[in-house]
Amino acid sequence: MSDTQFTIAIDGPAAAGKGTISKAVAARFGFAHLDTGLLYRAVGRRTLQGMEPIAAAQALSAEDLEQGDLRTAEIAQAASKVAVIPEVRSALVDFQRAFARRGGGAVLDGRDIGTVICPEAEVKLFVTASAEVRAERRFLELSAKGSDVTRDQVLSDVRERDARDAERSTAPMKPAEDAVLLDTSDLSIEAALAKAIEVIEKLRPAKS
């Protein structure tokens, strides 16, 4: 096997660091990267504008992923709500799977990549951290962008979203049985990235 079809699936809850790690890993190995959460955020954004969730998912375009406001807390909550709808998830599966098996290698991060979207991925990581650590990271991120939020509010949102993601009937968030667990609670981003690269290097085929 060569890097022409090499998929890295990185799952985990909000603010665990999976997005930062995924982007860095993709850059390190020269692979394409897809933040699958953006798909759900884009659908959530459409619903906030009055569109029906399933119709929004079926009509999703690449341009929808380029909107500058997809990282707001309001859209994050809307994304989590539409993500529990089986028909929404089904509408987005083919897009994700096609991206995963594109030539040149791919890194996908989300909540069900290793379990549902790419169960045959060559590398599976589950990046996590305590709810308190993740809430603090998200609070600092939102505050830096000028959002008027409190630490307690953000922690409540994180716990609510975790519960919704883990308890949904379709594709609940959980580690794949063969995923490598990476807890970033007490790790710097550099240390977390180093551990991720170490795992990938062990499973990546040597170039001839």
Tell me the layout of helices and strands:
Elements: E1 7-11, H1 18-29, E2 32-35, H2 37-48, H3 53-58, H4 73-82, H5 86-100, E3 106-110, H6 113-117, E4 123-128, H7 131-144, H8 151-167, E5 180-183, H9 189-203
Parallel strand pairs: 1-3, 1-4, 2-3, 4-5
Helix pairs in contact: 1-9, 2-4, 7-8
Task: Walk me through what this model shows.
- The protein is built from nine helices and five strands; from the N terminus they run βαβααααβαβααβα.
- A five-stranded parallel β-sheet has the order 2-3-1-4-5, with helices on both faces.
- Helices cover 51% and strands 12% of the residues.
- The protein has one domain (3-188): Rossmann fold, CATH 3.40.50.300.
- It starts with 6 loop residues before the first strand and ends in a 5-residue tail after the last helix.
- The chain has helices spanning 18-29, 37-48, 53-58, 73-82, 86-100, 113-117, 131-144, 151-167, 189-203, and strands spanning 7-11, 32-35, 106-110, 123-128, 180-183.
- Helix 2 crosses helix 4 (73-82).
- The longest helix has 17 residues, at 151-167.
- It is of the alpha/beta class and 208 residues long.
